[in-house]
Each structure stands twice: as structure tokens, then as C-alpha cells.
Amino acid sequence: MTSANFYPIGTPGQPWGESEREQWRKNQLPSRSYDDVLSQIRMLGNEYKIVKYGEITCASDTYPLMALRSDDWDESLPAALVTGGVHGYETSGVLGALRFLKEHGQEYKGKMNLLVAPCVSPWAFERISRWNYHLIDPNRSFYAEGKAEEAQALMSLIAPLREQFRVHIDLHETTDSDESEFRPALAARDGGPYIPDVVPDGFYLVSDEENSQLDFQQAIIAAVEKVTHIAPSNAEGKMLGFRVASPGVVEYPNSHYHLCSTMTGARFTTTTEVYPDSEKTNPEECIIAQVEAVKAALNFALDN
After folding, report:
1. Quick one: the chain helix, strand, coil %, rounded to 5?
2. How far is 64 from 239, CA to CA, in rounded Å?
3. Other C-beta atoms within 10 Å of 19: how many?
4. What's the pLDDT score for residue 3?
5. d(Cα 95, Cα 290) in Å, to the nearest integer?
6. How far is residue 49 from each of residues 69, 70, 118, 176, measured CA to CA in Å?
7. Catalytic site positions
8. Cβ contacts of residue 1 below 8 Å, gap of 6+?
9. Domains (ranges, CATH) in the chain?
10. Exposed/middle/buried for residue 59 (C-beta within 10 Å: 0-12, 13-18, 19+)
11. Checking phi first, is residue 230 left (phi over 0); if not, alpha (psi -120 to 50) or beta?
């Protein structure tokens, strides 16, 4: 469907002004609480150091930006960064990062320093939204001139540690709402046409063609396929219009899109994508898949 009036805000063919942007904000009603994430972070405070690395204010609401790090950080050890909730609607990324710490984080004690930012975009998390309050996609904002406060705060947090990171895994989801809501909204916001696409059915990774490390990507796929199914490529060997470099691995220049996974310059980087709306899986399985992806990424980085 490419109907010009597909999205119910704005005038077809015209970029949104402030009145349309405010209308969009009013439609974003909270449906869950960031306090539930904060309570899990507090419970992990007995085993990890809790770090407040900033806060954002959205109208009358203020959200602390929180991370957890190894309580015995050793600069002689390699470091791993795990991020979730860069897109607030991608639930398993948030819950997967927290569950990894709860169930497996201590396995890396004395081997690897851990820094985990489980919910990068808390306003969007509460509203199950891709954009932040200012209608910016944080996962297109990880560069010096980026406008997303969430991205800038996270980059400031990791800046003093940047040279220590060997691995960074950024946990995401691809949902049916990408096509029913978020891409149509993007087209309407920018005054362009909505050109539909197909949501990949299964787990896949986004690799950086400028730092491919396909053996690393393949190790994660091998671990995750024991938990949930891997998304196939189309007849042209592509997924979402991009080249599939290996089964379940989409590859393109991540820095061109200013993705979160580019900000450390680590040797091993990837972005996970699970598909919780598939009839072949369920939300719990998707959380487990995220945990297995993190473990596989960190274990490969330790061995290489």
C-alpha cells in the first residue's frame, strides 16, 4: 500500500510542522512504566555498580539514564558494551540485557569488564515508540552532530573507556509495527511516499561492511538458532534491501546511518534483530535469544 493519506497526521507530500509534531506526541500515551526497569537495575546493584550517566526531560517528565558496570573494573581486561532499548519499543532488548546480567554476568568476572545500558530511550520505552520525544530516531544519531539526547549521553559515558572495548552488541527487535506504524510515520513526517517492505521472519544480525568479522557474526547465529529461527534472505539474496553476507547476517555501512553499534570502534560489533510477532516464536523466546546472542558475542571476543 502506498496511499498518500496512509498516515493520519499531516498533509500528504508536506513535511510536518510543529502542530503535527505536537499531535504525534499527544498520541503517544504511556502504556508501561520505566520504573519497572529501574527496579530491576536497583536489584542488580548488589553485584554491579549502578551509574547514572544523565537524564532527559520530556515536557513534565524527567528520566534518569542508568547503566550497570562491573564493580571491579580492571583496565588490564578487555571490556564489553551491551546496549538495549535504543528504540524504546523493542522490548526484548531491554529485558534481554537485564536478564543477561542477572543470570550470566558474573560468569565474566575477572575475564571481561561489563558495561550495560539496558534502556537507552526511557520515554520511548514507556510509549512503545521508535522515536524519542523530539521525533528523532536515536539509532540514527550516534555521531557528534546527532540531535538525540539519549545518544549524546551514552556517547559521553563511554568516551573515557572507548579504547578498552573489544566487543559491543546492541539489542534490537523488528516488529510488525515497523510497517504498520513507524515507517508510515517517517514518510508522513518527512513529506515523502511510504513504500512498503516485508518484515523479516526470524532473528538476524546487522553487520558493518566496513568491519565485517563474519566469523563473529556466524558464531552468534549458531548460538541463537538453537533458541529461535533465523530469518531467510529473499530470492535476490537480500533482506530489507541489503545484501545478506551470510545466513542471518545483513551487511551495510553502519557508520553511514550513525548506528549505536559504531560508537565504540570495537573490533567486534553487531546489532541483533528478533521478530517477536512471528507465529514461530514468542516474547520469552526472544528474550532468551537476546541473552544467547550476548553470551556468544562475549565468548567469541574473549577467545579471539
Report:
1. 40, 20, 40
2. 36
3. 10
4. 42
5. 9
6. 5, 6, 14, 36
7. 273
8. 194, 196
9. 18-303 (3.40.630.10)
10. exposed
11. beta
Pairing of strands 268-274, 204-208: antiparallel
Please tell me the predicted confidence (pLDDT) of residue 6: 73
b (16+ CB within 10 A) / e for 146-184: bebbbbbbbbebbeebeebbbbbbbbbbbbebbbebbbb
Q: Which three cell numbers stand for residue 168?
A: 559491543
Q: How confident is the model at residue 2 (pLDDT cuts 50, 70, 90)?
A: very low
Burial of 65 (0-12, 13-18, 19+ CB in 10 A): buried
Query: Which among 88, 74, 155, 163 is positioned nearest to 118, based on CA atoms?
Result: 88
Residue 61 has pLDDT above 80, yes or no: yes
Tens digit of each residue's pLDDT (9 = 90 or more) over 97-118: 999 999 999 999 999 999 999 9
* pLDDT bracket for residue 255 (50, 70, 90): very high
The band of 1, judged by pLDDT with boundaries at 50, 70 and 90, is: very low
Question: In this model, does residue 209 exceed pLDDT 50?
Answer: yes
Among 171, 292, 275, which Cα is nearest to 224's?
292
Geometric angle at alpha carbon 259, from 42 and 235, rounded to 5°: 120
What's the full length of the chain, in residues?
304
Can you list the alpha helix ranges (DSSP code H) found in the chain? 18-27, 34-43, 91-104, 122-127, 149-158, 177, 183-190, 214-224, 283-303
Quick one: residue 130, left, alpha or beta (phi over 0 = left, psi -120 to 50 = alpha)? alpha
Mean pLDDT, the chain, rounded, equals 96
Helices and strands (DSSP H and E) totals, the chain: 9, 10
What is the rounded CA–CA span in Å between residue 219 and residue 236? 24
Place of cell 536515536: 138
